């Protein structure tokens, strides 16, 4: 596309993620963390991908901005019919966003299923440990239970990979 068309498209993508197109010529340091995240999402969607990979998309955002970014991502996924592969450690995001969940530990998928399968019927010890490590809001005196790991295995930490089906 010609430069003028590219600028118009970029402005449209900014508007799509809730940033006025007039801010398109500003520098990154002039944007908040949430706005920077929105710009990155706009860039990722500019080529209309079939699959959007989001690796910890709300890291370092406060809870309010995190919720706004997640709602925006859900709406854009729906609007463009894009599948989304979300990588996160945050079980709250998993509960809010995901249809299917794969739990990855030591570079292997150790458990996969629907959101209900994973949240209500955990099978793998790592998945069970993830849920046991959450704070208990009903009993504030309860101690957190750390996930046991074998340091000798030198395997990478587990990560959750979450998938929206097409």
Average pLDDT for all residues: 84
Number of helices: 6
What is the count of β-strands?
5
Unreliable runs:
none
Assembly state = single chain
SSE arrangement, N to C: HHEHEHEEHHE
Report the portion of residues in β strands.
Answer: 15-25%
- Terminal-residue CA separation: 29 Å
Give me the Rg, rounded: 19 Å
What general form does the structure show?
elongated
Strand line-up in the sheet with most strands: 1-2-5-3-4
DSSP helix fraction: 25-40%
Helix/strand structural class: alpha+beta
- Strand count, sense and closure of the main sheet? 5 strands, mixed
Kindly describe this structure.
With 166 residues, the chain is an alpha+beta fold. Helices cover 40% and strands 17% of the residues. It has a 5-stranded mixed sheet. Helix 1 (3-16) packs across helix 2 and helix 2 runs parallel beside helix 3. The longest helix has 18 residues, at 63-80. It is elongated and about 55 Å long. The mean pLDDT is 84.
């Amino acid at each position: 596309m010609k430069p003028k068309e590219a600028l118009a498209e970029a402005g449209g993508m900014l508007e799509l993620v809730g940033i006025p197109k007039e801010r398109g010529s500003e520098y990154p340091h002039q944007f908040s963390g949430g706005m920077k995240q929105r710009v990155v999402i706009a860039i990722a969607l500019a080529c209309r991908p079939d699959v959007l990979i989001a690796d910890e998309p709300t890291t370092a955002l406060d809870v309010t901005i995190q919720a706004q970014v997640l709602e925006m991502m859900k709406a854009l996924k729906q609007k463009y019919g894009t599948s989304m592969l979300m990588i996160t450690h945050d079980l709250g995001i998993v509960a809010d966003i995901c249809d299917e969940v794969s739990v990855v530990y030591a570079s292997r998928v150790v458990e996969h299923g629907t959101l209900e399968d994973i949240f209500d019927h955990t099978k793998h010890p790592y998945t069970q440990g993830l849920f046991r490590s959450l704070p208990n809001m009903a009993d504030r005196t309860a101690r957190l239970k750390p996930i046991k790991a074998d340091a000798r295995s030198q395997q990478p930490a587990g990560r959750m990979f979450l998938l929206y089906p097409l």
